[in-house]
Write a structure and sequence with these properties.
The protein contains 4 helices and 4 strands. The chain has 192 residues and is an alpha/beta fold.
């Protein structure tokens, strides 16, 4: 016997019950999440603003460091009428160095033949860093040496204080009569 009815085909036993249970559990399940586009846009806008501010702050820091480095490392020639502590001592122990011209005995000059011959009987150079320029000049003159002054802006050393020397104190002995280059602080930039 054939089923001649025009209705749907019969289901396997239990399939209809499973389908009804699946539809009911889907309909009774949790609701779909609600997406708040305005809240997402606010969060994105805040993070972009933070990144822009951090980038601007980093650029300002780099610019400030470059500016400080430029002024801290730039040698400053003595101003006319500079304070007495910046001018060479009256006894002529040290002479100012014209910018860009090495003197004999400086780090850029080559030793003469006479200096090389007397290097064995050299003079031990004391550490001059931290001394006032007048005291360092008198000490060098007492050792039979001459000195040349090169001025330099330094945030940490007061004006008129020796920052370093070339050759450095405690290094190899220097020849008698040679010149020692003294790097002397002019103090913080912008001060007279």
């Amino acid at each position: 016997m054939r089923n001649t009815s025009s209705g749907p085909a019969p289901f396997e036993p239990g399939l209809e019950a499973e389908l009804r249970a699946a539809v009911a559990s889907f309909a009774d399940g949790p609701t779909a999440p609600v997406v708040d586009a305005a809240a997402i846009e606010r969060v994105v806008r805040r993070s972009r603003t933070r990144r822009a501010l951090l980038g601007t702050a980093a650029a300002c820091c780099v610019l400030a460091c470059a500016t400080v480095g430029f002024f801290a490392l730039k040698p400053v020639p003595p101003a006319p009428g500079a304070s007495p502590s910046l001018s060479p001592p009256a006894n002529g122990a040290c002479t100012p160095l014209a910018i860009g011209t090495p003197k004999s005995g400086s780090a850029d000059a080559t030793p003469t033949q006479e200096q090389e011959q007397t290097a064995g009987a050299g003079i031990a150079l004391p550490d001059l860093a931290g001394m006032p320029v007048e005291q360092a000049g008198s000490l060098l003159r007492g050792l039979g040496l001459s000195c040349t002054i090169m001025r330099h802006t330094d945030w940490n050393a007061p004006a008129g204080q020796v920052i370093s020397s070339a050759p450095r104190g405690g290094a190899e002995p220097v020849a008698p009569g040679s010149s020692v280059l003294l790097l002397v602080s002019t103090g913080k930039p912008g001060r007279t």
